[in-house]
């Protein structure tokens, strides 16, 4: 019983420390409010312009292999929101290379908190532009499909679940890729492939791709489970509700495997001073 209370107290203290560090990071960013607001607006405009181009093309040529504009917009928005959620709380995982090259990881290792926890609190990012754009598009898509009778309002909580599990999957992919930096050091090009290119491909229905690429996006770099797989049930009622359970299981499996790989990678890390 005493051990349980001690663990609970330690977890509570760690959470308080995390909140304090996040607040400090946000305050430092808000010192330049005009730059923050302007950059957020620019990001939102860029994201909206990207989707508008897709909408114009689909409006001219029709459905994309049987997927309507609302459905494609839904995939796009869920992926955007999942990515924004991941990058808000764990952005520095994506930037691990600079810590390895510059020796900053050595400084984090001296802190009396787990290294991954310390990494999370570095340069906490606020991404209002991506959240606003993603929320607008997913709201527009859901409203259009509810109005047409394709889906019911139950799709809203299902969508929130898909965004949450999607963020976990994207974080897991990012963490596994970053862990390879303990051997490779330079991982930017690899991240461009495993995170950026794969995520961009999975913004669209996987039926567009040949079988080998679809399998890669589902089982090698599992970005297909972020939006495409849950959407098969949420939007189309295919396979049944167990598909959401499979998506959740995939998220937990990816998270557990990536954390285990991260812990192993840390044992192979060689300090810049060694």
Automatic annotation (TrEMBL):
Source domain of life: Bacteria
Keywords tagged on the record: Membrane, Transmembrane, Transmembrane helix
Pfam family, one: ABC2_membrane_6
Record keyword Ribosomal protein present: no
Record flagged with keyword Transmembrane helix: yes
Transmembrane intervals: 37-57, 69-86, 158-184, 216-235, 242-262
InterPro entries: ABC-2_transporter-like
Protein name, entry field: ABC-2 family transporter protein
Species of origin: Paenibacillus filicis
